[in-house]
Amino acid sequence: MSAIARWLPALAVASAMLAIANGTWALDHKALLFVFKPLTTLLIIAHAWQRGADTPAARRFVLAGLWFSLVGDIALLWPQQGFVPGLIAFLIGHVLYIVAFTREHRFAAQPAVLAVYALIAGTILAFLWGHIPAGLRIPVAAYVLALTLMAAQAAVVGLLTQGDGAGRARGLMIGGALFMVSDTVLAVNRFALPVPAAGLWILATYWVAQWLIAAWLKPDVVAPTSP
């Protein structure tokens, strides 16, 4: 493992904490949020970049999903004007993640898992529906569909993977679920009612989810250097 790789988790945590603090309730320096929010996702991309050599197709789609997530992060720095562009960027990111996960196991290989996630998402969407402006209902519903399919497919991978990659697959399953938690808090806070410390819960669960998705890829083996 390179020196940079060893430091990436600590750097990502520090950047995430500074983004959360500057964007929510602690330091309240909004300008710094514009630095640390994209930087945190870039550090997660760097974590994924050095992984997945043994599964190049999955690696490509995970990295593409992370890059679209970065676009969404930047768009949502402007919560009003950037909401729809950010929604579209994250929707594309979820589709790319679904494709990546299906490189491991076929789509909806466990229909019961998809049914459970669909029930949860449908219940949340039904609660929010009357609070969502009419012009946003179709984009939000499309996004919820993509998010739900992504989380369900992550759970399929987590439940079916055996052997060396089982631990990373379980992490992926948790990551998919945390992505749903993050976006549920965001949607409830935006459309229905204020959530205490919403920024903390949204960003913390979001970045843990993204880290676990990146960490699903197997670390690359670096050949030892000659003395």
In short:
The protein has 227 residues and is an all-alpha fold. It is 74% helix and 0% strand.
Could you list some keywords that capture this structure?
mainly alpha; globular; single chain; disordered C terminus; 227 residues
Please characterize this protein's 3D structure.
- This protein has 227 residues and is mainly alpha-helical.
- The chain has one domain.
- It has helices at 3-23, 30-49, 56-75, 83-101, 111-129, 137-160, 166-192, 198-215.
- Mean pLDDT is 93; it is low at 223-227.
List the helices and strands and how they pair.
Elements: H1 3-23, H2 30-49, H3 56-75, H4 83-101, H5 111-129, H6 137-160, H7 166-192, H8 198-215
Tell me about the biggest sheet? none
- Overall residue-averaged pLDDT value: 93
What is the number of independent domains? 1
Net shape: globular
Total helices: the number is: 8
Order of helices and strands: HHHHHHHH
Radius of gyration computed on alpha carbons = 18 Å
Q: What proportion of the residues is helical, as a percent range? A: over 70%
**Helix/strand/pairing category:** mainly alpha
Distance between the termini: 17 Å
Unreliable stretches: 223-227
Number of strands: 0
What percentage of the residues does DSSP assign to strands (E)? under 5%
